[in-house]
Amino acid sequence: MAEPAVHRVPGRGRFITFEGGEGSGKSTQIKTLAERLNAAKLRTLVTREPGGSPGAEIIRHLVLSGMGKLLGPDAETLLFAAARDDHVRTVIEPALARGTWVLCDRFSDSTRAYQGRLGQVTPAFLDAMQRVTIGDLKPDLTLILDVPVEVGMKRAAISVTPP
User: Fold this and answer.
1) Which residues contact residue 47 at a Cβ distance below 8 angstroms, ignoring those fewer than 6 apart?
2) Residue 156 in this model has a pLDDT that exceeds 60
3) 113: Cα separation from own chain's centroid
4) What share of the chain in percent tops pLDDT 90?
5) What confidence tens digit (pLDDT) does each residue in 102-147 have?
6) Which DSSP symbol is given to 11?
7) pLDDT of 4 higher than 60
8) Across the chain, where does the E strand assignment appear?
9) Cα–Cα distances in Å, from 25 out to 18, 22, 28, 81, 98?
10) pLDDT score, position 114
């Protein structure tokens, strides 16, 4: 059975998200795709979550400082939701409307994995946050990169170790 056609707004950009564990190669693959799209004369924006907009970068700092963990899984989810809301409203949706291809290092699937599965936040709470923050916005394509945990952690440690 054929999949239903995707209906696009004329001139709208494409939204591609990259998901995967630490060190799985998301940044490398995003860079490679951005270079290819730019070579094809397509406007491209590379962004990330958490972060990607001024407000979301502030929240990213809070989350990475451990503040979310101190507040508990539901509050941490609210922090991610606030960051995503700012990112979507101020960066992603305007770029897509201009016809720009948006490549995002992580998006809502990461919230479901980290806060939902690992943090045991209920699916109903995650659904509510998703309705508020992204509404009907869905990636046109999500690429999931997978490597053995040992490989990913080794790569992640190398990438954050100063020279």
Assistant:
1) 87, 91, 92, 102, 103, 104, 105
2) yes
3) 12
4) 67
5) 999 999 989 999 888 888 999 999 999 999 999 999 999 999 998 8
6) T
7) no
8) 15-20, 44-48, 101-105, 141-145
9) 9, 8, 5, 25, 28
10) 84
- List all residues 6 or more positions away from 101 whose beta carbon is below 8 Å from its beta carbon: 13, 14, 15, 16, 37, 42, 43, 44, 45
Angle at 113 between CA 107 and CA 117, to 5 degrees: 150
Encoded tokens for 80: 């991610």
* Token pair of 66 as six digits: 């451990």
Structure tokens at 65: 């400082």
Average pLDDT score, the chain = 88
> What distance in Å separates the CA atoms of residue 38 and residue 51, rounded to the nearest whole number?
23
**């995003």: which residue's tokens?**
30
Determine the Cα angle at 48 with ends 47 and 51, to 5°: 110
Output the six-digit token pair for 156: 């992640």
Residue 9: is its pLDDT beyond 60? no
Copy the structure tokens of residue 73: 């899984």
Q: CB 38: neighbour CB atoms within 10 A?
A: 12
